[in-house]
Amino acid sequence: MNRFTPMLAGHWSTLRRSTTARMAGLATLALALLSFFEIDDALGQLWQAHTTPAQIRERSIWLPNYQFVERLHLPGIQENASDIIYIAERKSYFVAVNGPPQLYEYSEDFALKAHYDLQGFEDTEALAYDGNGNLLIGEERRQSVVTLPLSQLDRPIVRSELGNLIIATKADNNRGLEGMAFDPASQVLFASREQRPMRLFEVAGAVQPSNAMVYQAAVSTLGVQRLRMDDVSAMHYDLQSRHLLVLSDESQLLAELDSGYYPISFMDLEAGFNGLDQDVPQAEGVTLGPQRELLIVSEPNLLYRYRLKEE
Amino acid sequence: MQVLSESEHSPRERDNHPHNVRQTAAVEMKLSLVNSLLFGLLALILTLRLTGLGLHPLLDSIEARHAEMARQMLEFSDWITPRLNPSVARWGTPPLSLWSQTASMQLLGITELALRLPAWLTHLFSCLVIIHLGRHERSLTVGLLAAVIYSSGTLGVLTSGVVVSDSTLSLALLLAYAGFWSGMAHGQRNAARLGFIGLGLGMLAKGPLILLLCAIAALFWVAFTRQWRQLRCLPWRSGLLLMLSMTLPWYAFAEFKNPGFFEHLLISEHLQRYLISDWHSGLQGDTHDQPLGTIWLYLLAALFPWSLLLPLLYRHRRDTYGNVWQLFLWCWALAIPLFFSLSGSIAWTYVLPALPAWALLLADTLSRWRGSRPTLIAGFALALPVLALMAVLEGSLEQHPQNQRALVQAWQRANVAQPGPLLYLERKSDSASFYSAGKAHHLDTTRPLPEHTVFYLARCLSDPGPLLPAQLDCAPMAQTNASLLLRCQPLLPPTASSPSTGHTHL
Predict the structure, then answer these.
(1) Could you say which of B329, B361, B396 is where a domain stops?
(2) 0.95 exceeded by the pTM?
């Protein structure tokens, strides 16, 4: 250090006169300013829109087309809202709460219909629907998926009485299964591990054998290097486009991935993007509603509703 | 600062004019620094290329086609007959590059990295030969700079990391030319034998074409320099024996297993391809009818960005008048484009074997040019390798319908719950064949779609192809690679209680 300082001082006057050094300094400053004012994100969205062919955009969810409409407090929930799913058969939204483990059922206009205690559950972080009358509830630390038949909602929900699927070995911290989605047509379950390391899993043929209460399915890890996300907090599989929505709380970003897990479109969850007036504090769940509106649940009990922009 | 001034150029010249010890030491230090920088630059270019090898999928048509042939060679353990499907042999190209790809997959597994690694190693070996030639005839600086130019031009960047046979031919021809030059100019008989080994490799890489390409440049040079007698000094007997012992076994086996193969290779794949524009052999699918002389445009594109500096060769032409080495390089550099100037059925990769000569010529001139700057050299050298790696990391290559890897993976996922074959209707995808281990099938109009079983159909979003029969219920299962994966099954007859919800998309 003692040697380095005089050496740097000696070279400083040379550096100040160097055109290359000036250009490098200006470029660094410009990049810092772009990042600070989030112009890089806006430019990224523009680039994505420009480079994605029209036939792909038309067959996608295409997040730049969504406009923020309103922010609601979810009735009945004080804190720890962790995921949301819409089930067309019941015309209901279900919202999971992870502490204490509970499930809330809402009508399409978010009037509270019912709430259920989840006995024996831990860290209920993720929800999905198997398209066949079963709600899938993901537990973070246990990294397991419990199958809850919707027909059993009228009686106490006890975990030990329900079948479950273990996605991976138990997490020894709060960094386990965080997001989950299901494709009923191909019977593929998508799951994400939140961080360290961040992973996406696909479980092909995730149909639980009738004679097994617990079974370990074949899981393959997907490449997520292009997601540019710090964590994955929730997922949703869209049956219409066959695309996957991936939500990141720390990156404040929602990404749409195609069936090859290639990012198609992005939406920033920060003030100024898609008409949003304030940052989403801690995005934990995402789903699409019956009119293809986009719904995002955030801690403690917030719901953000986006609608498709009118052409 | 020029990369290397005239006075610093030759160690011999320096020895002849030793002004003082300090000046010589300073020049040697500068030379050593320049060489270290060029070596670092070459290492960086090759590392950038190596980094991207396994990060992007195989693309239709040529790369995926070669990959699928190598995979079939591995699957059927048939190292004699290249084939794209188990029943049909493909004699477009002899199998040397397929052997390297198959052996690599046997060692490293069936991955993109394993398939592309032989091309990278071939390129690396070519660079070593170029460095050796440059160093022997001029200086280490010229050799290193030539290797940098060869590695960082458009075609050099491309062929050092894709599954094609051209890089093998280029190395073979490079060895042949180097052997010929060493034998003729320096009387090095062992090096000349290495040249015959190069010819043997070329016979196994592309066929008898290599003999013609080598002979054109060699005979022009011999004619210009009137060294006909020197030809007798080449080790013809042992050299030809080496060449034939390398090539004959495979040619004999191939002819024995597939009578008529040699005639097909010689007449159809060589002569007719050269003479007939828009020639289609089924293997090299992209030789199209081009105006005569297009090869020169391909040469400029293949050398880019270094082709911008080609006027320097004209400006410095007087420096090399009467130099037999330079004359040899010019014969080598011009022989291949001149030969293909008369053919309309060409691909731009055909100029690759000429690029080492152009790189050596440019390097020699650049090392003398006073306007040469390290930043200019580094900028030219790194521009395309960095851009190539950025394109790979950005991932847009994965969005092309020419790549079907993700679609095949989506089919494999869906296939677990509801098994069915993957079909391509009136469209062939070697990429799909490779990634599905030969399980993707191509259906033309003469073969009907299955009517009683579940099957999966891949369709391109921009060109969905023909309408599907009304009795099929097809629903989208995945969308990726600008393609759609449909699951189709026979439409159930409607009943009074449950009307069918079946529908056909696209």
Answers:
(1) B396
(2) no
